[in-house]
Amino acid sequence: MRADTDAGGDVPERTAEPLRIVVVDDHPVFRMGMTALLGSLPGLSVVAEAESMETALTAARVRQPDVVVMDLHLGDHAPSGVVATRELLRVRPDTAVLVVTMLDDDDSVFAAMRAGARGYLLKGASPTEVERAVRAVANGEVILGPAVASRAVAHLTGGRSTGGGPNALPELTTREREVLDLVARGLDNLAISRRLMLSPKTVRNHLSNILAKLQAASRAEAIVRARQAGLGAD
Length: 234
Known about the structure:
Elements: E1 19-24, H1 28-39, E2 44-50, H2 53-63, E3 67-70, H3 81-91, E4 96-101, H4 106-115, E5 119-122, H5 127-138, E6 143-144, H6 146-156, H7 174-184, H8 189-196, H9 200-214, H10 219-228
Parallel strand pairs: 1-2, 1-3, 3-4, 4-5, 5-6
Helix pairs in contact: 2-3, 3-4, 7-9, 7-10, 8-9
């Protein structure tokens, strides 16, 4: 007879179920690495991997995860992780979404949080930061990585990160200044569309408006004007 069992028949404590996690990323090497990391930690269990919004939604329905680790870029011609987050939370509103991505611009951060993500880390985050973030969002907390948090504070206090400040080229809208800033940094239209979570057609429309407002005859002339105004700086 076990020494800790009495006549009253004490019920042994139930072991807590591990957190169920789905990892969503279109890069298989990163996805496998994240799966290996999370699977090695106590109390965490990766129950599925997904490389697209469609497979992520299927995994959410079937595996019913507590946390989804979500990249924002899920392929050149695929819905973004922002769209995937919104759709996933429509299907599984109790699931916590933690974004882990390369995108560190203000628009990506705020778009993800508006879509319902509870956390946002950059892919350079340490294993300890990732573990802490997964457990935090599962517990209902909102968590931002250090670099992302500093950008959010700057935004909320009026210090936008876009070069040249809000008064640079006042004839342009805020979005047009953001597009022009990236053009002046040397990004092409596809890279700008990924960075700002816009369609390539929308980026082209913004560029047409920028050229017209600046009375610039070419992209090169617009870049010169942007640099003169302080945009495009590293």
